[in-house]
Amino acid sequence: MTPLLTYFDVRGRAEVVRLILEETGTPYREKRVTMADWPMLKPTLPFAQLPTYEADNLFIVHSHAIYRHLARVHNLYGSSEHEHVRCDLVEETFVDAQANVGGFYWHAEFAKRRDEYEATTLPDLLGKLQRLLEQNNSGNGFWVGDNLTYVDFCAWHLLDYVRPFSQRTLDRFEKLNAFKQRIEARPRIAAYLQSERRPKTLTASVAPFGGTPETS
């Protein structure tokens, strides 16, 4: 069965799944749920959450469980216990970072707090991330070891969330910005980013930021 990814018609939590499948050349199908359909679908799901991923008699919920499954299947989880641990550490760091940035985009006082967040919170966050990147090969390659892993897509996804909000802040962090450019220059990723397959927005239209193509 061709894998089926079910999520809303936004990038959100499913984008890392798409990036892994695109990079590995894995055929997949998508079911994109509309906000009108969501109230009926929600109670049928184990934790009332999306995305879900179905393949090889597996039904997986929770986005990071999907990421790790795909990482194991496609040899994107490092090659030693040391690298497995590093993957786990980097992944958890980006769980927190994504909650920070994505949560702010949904904040009821987004417009009021935007300048302060851009001036203080965001640079502090990116500075910590760059220092973590620099622990591996001085920040000139991947986040783990010498080869691509699934956490590189977690990292790219977060940085691409920052891009429409404040590219000028991201530009201050040379290693992060260069890493982002290396990932999006990979042939299959570049093709996906330019394709009609990619959702047009970061998140739902009701969010204060990221819910329209102009903010994505």
Write up what this structure looks like.
This protein has about 220 residues and is an alpha+beta fold. It is globular and about 45 Å long. A 4-stranded mixed beta sheet has the order 2-1-3-4, covered by helices on one side. The protein is about 50% helix and about 10% strand. The protein starts with a strand and ends in a 23-residue tail after the last helix. It has 2 domains: about 5-75 and about 190-215, Glutaredoxin, CATH 3.40.30; about 80-185, Glutathione S-transferase Yfyf (Class Pi), Chain A, domain 2. It has helices at about 15-25, 40, 65-75, 80-105, 110-135, 150-170, 175-185, 185-195, and strands at about 5-10, 30-35, 50-55, 60.
Task: Give the low-confidence spans.
Answer: none
The number of E-state strands comes to: 4
Tally of individual domains: 2
| Rg value | 17 Å
**Major sheet, described briefly?**
4 strands, mixed
Strand order of the largest sheet: 2-1-3-4
Q: Which structural class is indicated by helix and strand composition?
A: alpha+beta
- CATH topology value of the largest domain: Glutathione S-transferase Yfyf (Class Pi), Chain A, domain 2
Could you report the average pLDDT, rounded to the nearest whole number? 97
How much of the polypeptide forms β-strand, as a percent range? Answer: 5-15%
Q: Helical amount among residues, as a percent range? A: 40-55%
Oligomer category:
single chain
Helix count, DSSP H or I runs of 4 or more residues = 8
